[in-house]
Structures are given as C-alpha cells and as structure tokens.
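REQUEST ID: PR-0412
SUBMITTED BY: lab tech R.K.
PRIORITY: routine
TASK: structure prediction, single protein chain
INPUT:
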Amino acid sequence: MKKKFVNLNILEKGNSSQNTRMDTEKAYIKISDHTILDTPDLIALNKPSGLLSIPDREGKDISLKKLLIEKYGNIFTVHRLDKDTSGLIVFAKNETTHKLLSQQFEERQTEKIYLGLVLGSLAEKKGSINTLISEHPLKRGLMTVYKKGKESLTDYEVLEDFKIFSWVQFQIHTGRTHQIRVHAKHIGHPVVCDELYGDGKPILLSALKHKFKLSKNELEERPILNRLALHALSLQFTNTNGEKIKLEAPLPKDLRALLQQLRKRKH
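STATUS: complete
OUTPUT:
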C-alpha cells in the first residue's frame, strides 16, 4: 500500500486551484509522522513550524485542521498554535471530547508548557508576567499590553543562559493570542526570529563560530534558524475517562541543532 503524502505548497496570491505554480522545493507532511497520540476521541500532533493550525481569515493557505478533516472527517478545534510556533497541538474527534477539553482550557485546568529562545540574558531568572493584553488599537494582527486588555499570566524560568540568548521555559495560565511573544517583548527579551515583536533576524552560524567558513558550493550562508524560536513542549489535561494525560512533543531538528551550537560556544 502506497504511503499518502499531503502537499503543503501554498497557492500564490491570485492563482486558482487549476493554475497553481509549485515551488521548486516542495514541502510535504505525512500526518502519521507527526502524530503523538491518536484515539477515537482525539488526536495530538507535533505541528511543524510554518503550518497553520486552523484556516486563517483568507483561507488560502493549507492548515493542519484541513489535512486532518481530509483524513478523519469531523475534527474540532480545541486550541491553536501560531503558524510559526512548532509543537504539541490537540484536536477533538467528536463533540463530547471537544466540549470537555474546551471547558478545561477555559477554566484553566490544563497545564501548558512551552520552550523558547529569547534575546539577551534575563536579570530575573525566574518569575511571572501578569499584564492585560488586547489587540493593538492601530495595527491589525498585532497584540499589545494595554490597560483595557484581558488578564494574561505567564510564568517563566531560564533553563540555560547563553548571554546573547537565553533558553526559557514558559507556562501560560491564560491563552491570549501571541501571549508568550507579547510578554517576552514586555520584559525586554523578545523571542528570537520574531518578526512581529522582535527584530525578526535569523541566526547565522558565523555569528556563533569564530572560525566559520562557507562550504565551496555555497554562495551565501544559510541561517541555522530562520523561524520563530518557540515550541509547545507539553500539555496536561483530563480525558473522557477522567484520566490525567500528559503529552510531550520532542524538539524539532532546527532547535536541537541551534542549542547544540550554543552549548559548544558556551564551553
């Protein structure tokens, strides 16, 4: 039986489905390769960076939910991850599970842990960020700390300090849009490669290695990381049988490689 791959190429603006120009470097995702747990009630996956969790307003780009609907039929959104955030995401397969899990998210009965690389070295290695977050009054799609916003609570702990960067664990107690990214900016240490709340600059190996040399076949250096350095590590919730479930999504290759280089530089 042939393995079924789903094409993740994004349609160019203005193109119809009959007139699509494929990128030369094609991207594919096989659902089973990213599945962490698959039961009759829910599916949990390790979402790759660059893939929408659910369809956006324009509906032009492919989304993980759409791919799951093609495979399973009914799929219900419980929560979401930003497009450029990798990591653990859960979808319900029926209305009962959807209601149960959604209620746990709303009533803050879940435990959500993220890992992220931020700019700089934090003076306070452990703490809580408790602010009000709302949509930016002028810039569409941007969130901001604002007095008329909703309560937003994030606990953080620095796991490794690389001086120029810090590897941080975040636990979010509320689920505001871009919450960790807004809070990281608020304390003066935005998430690395964040185009909305930071400088958006990719990380180059030449910036980490003193004796870096391009290989003979390369005309210019390829970044070691060129996406938002944020990963949803784990999620704890109660399933329909009343059992506590804790799921974890392993770090993707790009973040593992970056951490390896930063640790080498440290020593």
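NOTES: The two ends are 49 Å apart (CA to CA).
REVIEWED BY: pending
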